[in-house]
Write a structure and sequence with these properties.
This protein is an all-alpha fold. The protein is built from 27 helices and no strands.
């Protein structure tokens, strides 16, 4: 650790020497400092702030006094004074409290219990329950990982599903779902990073509209979800996962007996089992848990956001409804304002709906809400640090320098591929998806805009999605990632064991994202066609793998 700290210190101190040079490449030095610090120290906030510090040192030609003053007056204070930025911070924190209320209220766990109790509790049924619950918990990656893992793990082993398989399902439906969801604790940060990239390029456009249009291009996330469905339906086990899953195989008779016992444990004493909840995995007493405690607030949040974006962006012309009118309204809406207003109202609904269920557990809904906000303080600090770094990069014209360096040397068709690979390497090495977005988006989005001579093109959508895809890859494979750690802990295994068993699947999804997704769309293919083709390829791989396995014993 001392060696790493020494290297980071030397790299940062070198900023004084770099600042004296009159070379275009020095504009990229803050990003180099940030990457080095994040990689070696595994401290995202520290790395981003050191990068910003290096930027102001260069801007002020090595003068430490004016550089330190400028960091606050020219970069930090303006960032915190922006109405957009304040809206983003408020929404992120509010949705953290919302997610905590939904999780503690137990409505989603009750929904899972009803599904499992309504039929034969087979291994596939348990896995599909984890899969679909992961899709329902789109609002937050970490809450998703903890909630799904804790809810399903008591039944998983009884049904012959290994903890390693469950951890793979939990992790694959956390960040991947949150990244493509239009309502999540991620969305405000994603919109903010897109906005920073547009600001670097000097282009006027609506971040929310660009995000929506980039969703089909987010190939790694989609292929991760498609591959997971193939793995469950085909019972496809490869690499270390095969050994782990084989150890939990049981014969049909034993499986049936365990399922019967599991259903007796979940089945509540009250005849109104649709409105009651799930027995704790440790055999504790039952708590009333209604599905409406989760579904009503989630329904309000989704409907409120859709209605709010349309009403805010339609400009008073609401009828007649058409796809074009809705699309234009979403693109013109003040997304940050709508997100804050709707999230405040949704938090109120979640608080009221979950007040009694939380109180019956001996806790306070207000405390749960506060703790949920507290869990997102660190991500918010990462966001602020990324803004400050982006501000210094903008003043250094780093995006313009990088665009001129790459123009003519990199084909637009392969640029999203390079962005995805770079993002995957950064996120895997550092374990931070948000940090990866904060470093890459302000640098790469202006380059993509430059390829279109200032016009919005498919390359731009693919580049936005490539940054997000690369960032999520690290969440799935890095032993330093918070979702990797939380997913493994919630399922009762060591993080490194989880990394080993999930890595082969993540690599398959990433190769498919490159060869079937980013590269073809860069050459002009329709992204939806790539998604369909990718699904066919992944299913075919599972068939080929099964045939090969049978042929080789």
């Amino acid at each position: 650790m001392k060696m790493r700290l020494t290297i980071v210190t030397l790299v940062f101190i070198s900023s004084w020497f770099v600042g004296l040079q009159d070379m275009p490449w020095i504009s990229l030095w803050p990003s180099v400092v940030a990457l080095t610090a994040v990689f070696l120290l595994n401290r995202t906030i520290t790395g981003l702030l050191l990068g910003a510090g290096a930027g102001v040192v260069i801007l002020h030609h090595g003068n430490p006094v004016t550089a330190c003053s400028s960091l606050f007056t020219d970069h930090l204070f303006p960032v915190l004074g922006s109405s957009w930025n304040l809206s983003v911070l408020a929404f992120t924190l509010l949705l953290g409290g919302f997610a905590a209320l939904i999780e503690k209220g137990g409505g989603l766990q009750a929904l899972t219990a009803r599904w499992l109790a309504s039929g034969k509790q087979s291994g596939k049924r348990v896995q599909w329950s984890a899969y679909f619950l992961g899709l329902v918990c789109f609002f937050d990656g970490l809450a998703n990982s903890m909630l799904v893992g804790k809810s399903i793990s008591p039944m998983a082993e009884r049904a012959g599903v290994s903890r390693h398989r469950l951890a793979y399902i939990v992790d694959s439906t956390s960040s991947a779902v949150a990244c493509v969801a239009v309502i999540s604790t991620w969305i405000a940060y994603q919109l903010s990073m897109i906005r920073e990239g547009l600001s670097q390029a000097g282009l006027e456009a609506q971040p929310f509209d660009l995000f929506l249009k980039s969703i089909p291009f987010n190939f790694y996330c989609w292929f991760t979800l498609i591959l997971l469905a193939v793995v469950i339906s085909r019972d496809w086990n490869i690499g270390p996962m095969r050994k782990c899953q084989r150890g939990f195989r049981q014969d049909e008779h034993d499986c049936h007996k365990e399922a019967q016992e599991a259903r007796r444990q979940i089945k509540p004493e009250s005849p109104r089992h649709d409105e009651q909840g799930l027995q704790d995995g440790d055999g504790g007493h039952k708590e009333p848990r209604t599905t409406s405690c989760a579904l009503v607030p989630l329904g309000f949040l989704i409907a409120g956001l859709l209605a709010g974006l349309y009403l805010n962006g339609a400009g008073g012309e609401y009828l007649p409804l058409s796809l074009e009118r809705v699309s234009d309204a979403f693109g013109n809406a003040d997304a940050a304002k709508v997100l804050v207003v709707v999230s405040v109202l949704a938090c109120g609904v979640a608080f009221i709906m979950n007040f009694n269920p939380i109180k019956k557990q001996g806790e306070s809904a207000a405390n749960v809400f506060g703790l949920g906000i507290g869990h997102l303080i660190k991500p918010v600090l990462i966001l602020i640090s990324a803004w400050v770094l982006s501000s210094t990069l903008k003043e250094l014209n780093a995006a313009g320098v990088l665009t001129s360096m790459l123009h003519g040397s990199v084909a637009p068709a392969i640029f999203p591929v390079l962005v995805f690979i770079t993002g995957a390497l950064i996120s895997f090495s550092t374990g931070t998806s948000w940090g990866t977005m904060g470093i890459l988006m302000p640098l790469t989005l202006p380059v993509a805009i430059g390829f279109g001579d200032g016009e919005i093109t498919k390359v731009m959508y693919a580049t936005i999605a490539a940054v997000f895809s690369g960032a999520v890859f690290g969440d799935h494979c890095s032993p330093f990632s918070d979702t990797t750690i939380v997913s493994s802990i919630s399922c009762g295994i060591e993080p490194m064991e989880h990394v080993k068993t999930q890595m082969p699947y993540a690599l398959i999804a990433s190769v498919a994202a490159i060869l079937v997704g980013f590269l073809p769309t860069g050459l002009g293919f329709n992204p939806y066609l790539s998604l369909v083709l990718g699904g066919v390829v992944l299913f075919s791989l599972s068939v080929i793998s099964k045939v090969w396995k049978r042929g080789h014993g």
